[in-house]
Hints:
The structure holds two protein chains of two kinds. Chain A is mainly α. Helix content of chain A is 78%, strand content 0%. In chain A, helix 8 (183-193) packs antiparallel against helix 9 (198-224). The longest helix of chain A is centred in the middle third of the chain and has 29 residues, at 98-126. Chain A starts with a helix and ends with a helix. Chain B contains 15 helices and 19 strands. Chain A: This is BOS complex subunit TMEM147. Chain A: Its main location: membrane. Chain A: It is found in: Cell membrane; Endoplasmic reticulum membrane.
Amino acid sequence: MTFFHFFNCAALTFGPHAIYYKATPLSEYDTLGTCIKAAIVYLVTTLVKLICQATFLQVSEHDDFDLGQELLKGLIGFLDVGGLYYALTQVSHRSISQDHKFQAVGLGWAFADALLHRLAPLWVGAKGLEFTWEHLLQGLESNANLVLTVSLAALGSLMWLRKNKPSALVPVIYTTAGVVAAMPSITNYLRKGLAWEFSNVVSFELLASLVMSFITWRLFCACQRPAQ
Amino acid sequence: MKGGRRQRAIGQAVVALMTVLMSMVVADAAAVVDVYRMIQYDLKGNPMGSRRAALNHHTVSGFDVQGADLSRAVVILPALKVNISSLDEFVQNKGLLGGLLLLLPQRSDETGGAEGDDSDEKVAKALAELEQWLVHNTFQYPVYFAYEDENLLKLLHEVAASDAAGRPASATNGGYKLVVSAPEAKKLTTPTITNIQGWLPGLRAEGDSLMLPTIAIVASYDTFGAAPALASGSDSNGSGVAMLLELARLFSRLYANPNTRGRYNLLFGLTSGSPYNYNGTSNWLRNFDQRLRESMEYALCLNSLGSSSDRMLLHVSKPPENAFIQQIFSEIESVAKDSDLTVELKHKKINISNSRVAWEHEQFSRQRITAVTLSHLEEPPELLQRTGGIADIRRSVNETVVLRNIKVVAESLARHIYGQQGKQVELFAAGSNLALNPSYVRSWLNLLGRTSRVAPFLGKNAPIINALHKELSQHTKDASLQHETLDSTFLFYDSTKAQLNVYQVASVTFDFIVALAVGSYLMLLFIVLFISTKGVKDFVGIFRKAPSRKYKST
């Protein structure tokens, strides 16, 4: 019966990505290539991040929240933004519209992230007889992550790909992008520094992702109008 | 075309990889506990003990839980709270059980106190009764023992709570599952019993061609219990072995110097196979050569001399009026008087047609060698009774009593050897260089009390056998091992220790509910994304059938 649990959790973790691809026009415009390229860029970025973390961070014995270490981790996390920049601007994509480009990049990025971070724990943990809520919560977390990544990709495309933006909105765009990029550090702080329960952290992530995506959507629509 | 074939090849490779990965299972239990399996043996072809080893069932806290299917459940019972008569009824009615886990009280390695602890005695008595009942019954399901620790007690508490609330653990309810993955037990093909002997030769006068008389001091060192991994009998017969080793040490000091060497040979024997009608002793005696047998004056068998008691019994099979028996008895009694110890003579006739051998000296008597058994036990033990099982713990042995008994035996033996009967001499006085060594006795009692010594499971090279051999070779001139095969009346099966995994499993209904929730969430997500990006019309269009081709052709 535990394979059953594994399939449940896997469906919750990876299903949304597949559904996003199928349900939106992404599948019609055959943007699979873009997704795969974005996934590869994610892999390279993660490798670079790990090397930086190994070089600059100290391994602490206890699970305390050390502000200095966390700031450094956050800084290294901003490499993610650099990776997204590279994926959005430098990698050559087949001619697809701006709208779809950022969605495809965000989807590929989030899928690679979910695969790398959650497949192995799911495989090892959910198949055992012992039951914990952890894997279902991780599935929800990966959903939130998908939304956040797509929002970040949208903001990124706004920042780097769109030439004419209403100047009033530019600082808003940058702040929102900063907040979204810092989400991993914020969740880390909540989990370790404030010692929140995992379920509380996941609900915060879901809420934050919804709020951020809403703000991004409004910004995106607001920037659409002048580009007639 | 090519792309299609390549895709199929990749697909097949992925499927193969998935199948391989899926077969790897990683255990991830809430708790892992050491458990000890009940003994499985055949007595004259009759299967006895627990006949299964592998366990994989939900837990239940008792026999009368509402709605529990006992044949697919493991019952956890604290060993001291077992109601033997109701359990016996259940077993006699051939009740089926998934498994039985008995929890033993925490063991402590403390030595026995000077005053017998009342609760300790009650515990020992209850455990001994349970053990006796278990050993003489057959169980078609696995029976395991475990020591109570906080994990297990918490588990029992939670299981009892959910049972009381009418929700016993099962596949539909979820709950705790106990898993022991052990292979089925195999027969032990050549169970070896090993006798260890040491020879201390006496002083031969010049020109004396006759062999000196020999006195044998014998103690059996092996045990038998309901759980072979836990049968480390301290009183039966760890006390006897410790006494024998101390006597060997004392007399080896006396015999080291030719001026103090007695005119008797001393033969020390540590025999095995005692629970099985002293099988090892009879083999050992049969291997004696004729000269040794004729020179044997008598044998002193030591059995269970550690528990607090003011009486020592001298069990004999020769009629008590026999002059030689009377001599031995009076020697011991006169020494014992000084130590406030009462010695009594008890006679039990041997019935040659009955294969049951209750005392070790009976094996000597069957070979026409005079022998006695010294013991605190009053009644001859029944088959597989008082064989040093789980109930016989280190705490039940009182060191002071053991030392006192050693002194009594040593002094009376010395008076016999050196011809000082009736005289008030004290050879092994405290403070002299022949004084008894309490720490020596204590360390051997401790070692024996934590080593399980069920003979068929020891094999030829067990560390305890080598340790005893080495010790005897230090005190005697000639120490040797003798390996024999246990007679075929008893057949044993292996698999005595295992690891128990405790899992907390969710019920099947839970998995179904989650599947339903995830499925509906994904469908909702699909609908929302489809409608928001492609419009409602396209969405509805999925459901409308494509226009039939029939109309096109007309």
